[in-house]
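Here is one chain, start to finish.
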Amino acid sequence: MHVDDERIVITGVGLTAPNGNSLEEFRQNLLAGKANIELLDIRYIGMVPAGVCDFEATRYQAKKDIRNGTRAGSIGVYCANEAILDSRVDFSAIDRSRIGVYVGITEHGNVETENEIYNLSRFGYDVRYWGHYHNPRTIANSPAGEITINLGITGPHYTIGAACAAGNAGLIQAFQMLRLGEVDMAIAGGVSESIRSFGIFAGFKSQGALGYNKDPNLVSRPFDRGRNGIVVSEGGCLYVVERLKNALARSAKIYAEIVGYGINSDATDAVKPNSTRQAECIRLALKRADLRPMDVHIVSSHATSTSQGDVSECVALREVFAGSGGTYFNNTKSFIGHAMGAAGALELAGNLPSLEDGYVHATINVDDLDPDCQIDNLVCNKAIKLNSPEIILNNSFGMMGVNSVVVVKKFSD
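Its structure:
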């Protein structure tokens, strides 16, 4: 079955973020300007700002499963179950061989390996003390696989490694597989366990990209002249995605219709972004959506609070959206830090309610706007109200020069 003319919609959202464990809580804190970053004691490094999630893992998992599984898996299981509940689908009646699970990740396995080696060092590196569950914990598909085991899903599952563009990439994969007729429903988005790895913090610190401030809630400050680096965060956001005809048949709530996407590669550098390729990715997504830049009402930026990254994206945004007077720009990392593989999925979720309530949440902590980040209609420090926004464009860019963009539209017949 090939159904590439089918419309694809989002009917469920499940998430955990440093400042919220449901879309409602997350959204309320974004509109209120409430960040939640704390200082975390990282092995070999000391106290660093980090975005930590505080969700009830035992709501959907037994303690044994949590102990034998992974943090990314627990995040995924929580988000998947919450998304299914939110979608109000009769999960007992659905053919679970026709559900696909597509989870974007930045990294997986290094957390577990670091911890195993550290624990082994306390026993003279005697491999008899090596964890029995290390192999299944460290395979790349583990987070998606843990979801299928928990929910009894027998359809396809895999993770999509796309660095910090992975949250969007998971959603794009769901869109494509539904269009191809490979599945009838998908659970898709991104997860991240980044704060469990001292190597990630050490890597950013050695690059001079790990931010710090006496007040951890003021560290992440995209576009601000005083920014000094990123905040590493964990988190997750998974969506229930399905064909419009199926959603209408069960009278599902429709958050938005996915109307366009783009993925491309810089092909220039492992770390330094390429604004030209970013602009091309945005244009590709708009072309697939059959939209003009001026049709977009909200652009959710990727900006991470690093000078190179923020400025590069702003160059791309000015190039694409020049003269688009009705387009507004915001950023979610200023609230929750950089949730890596989950970033794009969480940032889209934070903006989805705009299609109903009309508000655009702000980018907070912008006290002294970097002139190189000047964009018309950049929403800073206070949410604003628009008149019936209908189109959201979500940017996510990652290391190795991978770029992803998703465009969603308010549903209408």
